[in-house]
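As a warm-up, study this chain.
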Amino acid sequence: MLGRRTALAAWVVRALTLALLVLGATHPDWHQFAGKAMAARAVAYPLAMLALPVGWWLTRRGRTPYPAVQDLLLTLPFLVDTAGNALDLYDGITWFDDACHFLNWALLLGAVAITLPARLGGWARLGLTVGLGSTTALVWGSASTSRSCATAPSLATAYTDTLGDMTLGTLGSLLAGLVVLRLRAARRA
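Now compare it with the structure written out below.
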């Protein structure tokens, strides 16, 4: 029953995210959406949020239970980001962007850490979680910086902001890895 509720929660998160993406893509002139690549997000985010359910349906359906917790963890960061834009939190609260980089990477990499096979051992799973978290933070930061550098006003702060974002993403993935390591150790005890 908990798995069904969790899976339903992930679909509710998808629906809310999609509604906010449509709002942002259809109102790019609103100040909270201006320059935030909402049209690109409106394409990329739904595709990313469908990757797990479609992949499971095509390859695992009937053989393994639906990974509802991972699904929810993977969809929540997209809602956090789009809601942050819709509510103008990125521009209105100075620390919101930093909190998002930490929290969203913790959520995303929590899903990864849960999925990694137990036979790897706790420290190997932790290392893979942090390594993937750091790599994805680097890729995201590089893409974000190249977009930011195209606009002169953000050029002055783009480099230091990106380094901070990558550090926070890596720390979020470390937290996720440590939490999953601890939960698995507690389950074995």
